[in-house]
TrEMBL record:
Coiled coil: none annotated. Dihydroxyacetone phosphate binds at residues 180, 208-210, 229-232. The active site is at residue 81. Zn(2+) 2 binds at residues 103, 133. Its cofactor is Zn(2+). It comes from Vallitalea pronyensis. PROSITE patterns: ALDOLASE_CLASS_II_1, ALDOLASE_CLASS_II_2. This is Class II fructose-bisphosphate aldolase.
Length: 283
């Protein structure tokens, strides 16, 4: 069934695990996540960026995920990722979304707090939880682009203040990850993570997990990360599976063949990432 994400995240944290949150784009990727999570007996978060909502439609995504979640006996949460708009968040909540991320990273501190607080008050009034972000995660996601000099690691004291000022339920932090893949090996600032974890009461979220070595993901979870966002590492196998279908038969024209291959490829990664997060068997 479709459920709130916060209890899932808290339960995973108690078990020294994290909930894998997968960015999806269409019917087949929703099925890949639900089937993969279901086979792993893992609570899971399905999330969409505003770009995906523009592409697929909030009503379509909400209805498909609601139906898919009702058909399985694992908890599934539906989350809007990196949303800068109060209105879009309301629209999502009206369409089966069970938690939201308000992203005010482009604003200065005071404006960011004002926006996040407004969203949090509204969301809490209707029983929804809110993820906020402090610091700036680098890389490209949708129409957001943060280059290396603009990216800013989270300052622990600011994280504490931000949580207090806004009333958010989970906090996304910048500790050296970036959206998309990496040129070299990303270096995560684990000490900063532990410092933030010691100062902040709400569960912490790691964005930009694609391309981060498994050992670093595990260390991050050990130090308190309880939700792991994965987008690019699902997009890549999907594209590869489609390309390889057409390489085998350039006249392929059956969407069930190339999208079916894509769904299988994505599902395989979903299961691997769930095991990496240690959320398998928690449902
Ligand atoms: P990746 O594309 O690096 O997995 O980042 C995902 C993310 O943070 C979505 O919000
Ligand atoms: Zn992100
Ligand atoms: Na990444």
């Amino acid at each position: 069934p479709l459920v709130s994400s916060l209890p899932l995240i808290k339960k995973a944290k108690e078990k020294k695990a994290a909930i894998a949150a997968f960015n999806i784009h269409n019917l087949e990727t929703i099925q890949a996540v639900i089937e993969g999570a279901s086979e792993e007996r893992a609570p899971v978060i399905i999330q969409t960026t505003p770009g995906t909502l523009r592409h697929a439609g909030i009503e379509y995504i909400g209805a498909i995920v609601k139906k898919a979640a009702d058909m399985v006996d694992i908890p599934v949460a539906l989350h809007v990722d990196h949303c800068p708009s109060f209105d879009t968040i309301v629209h999502c909540i009206r369409n089966h979304y069970t938690s939201v991320m308000i992203d005010g990273a482009h604003l200065d501190y005071e404006e960011n707090v004002a926006l996040v607080k407004r969203v949090t008050e509204m969301a809490h009034a209707v029983g929804m939880q809110v993820e906020g972000e402090i610091g700036k995660i680098g890389g490209v996601e949708d129409d957001m682009f943060v280059n290396e000099d603009e990216a800013a690691l989270t300052v622990p004291s600011e994280a504490k203040q931000f949580v207090e000022d806004t009333g958010i339920d989970t906090l996304a932090i910048a500790i050296g990850t970036a959206h998309g893949m990496y040129k070299g090996e990303p270096k995560l600032d684990f000490e900063r993570l532990s410092e933030i974890e010691a100062m902040v009461d709400v569960p912490l979220v790691l964005h930009g997990a694609s391309g981060v070595p498994d050992a670093s993901i595990k260390e991050a979870i050990k130090r308190g990360i309880a939700k792991i966002n994965i987008a690019t590492e699902l997009k890549n196998p999907m594209a590869k599976a489609i390309v390889s279908t057409f390489e085998k038969n350039k006249d392929e024209n059956d969407p069930r063949n190339y999208m079916g291959a894509a769904r299988e490829a994505v599902k395989k990664v979903v299961k691997e990432k769930i095991r990496l997060c240690g959320s398998n068997g928690l449902a």
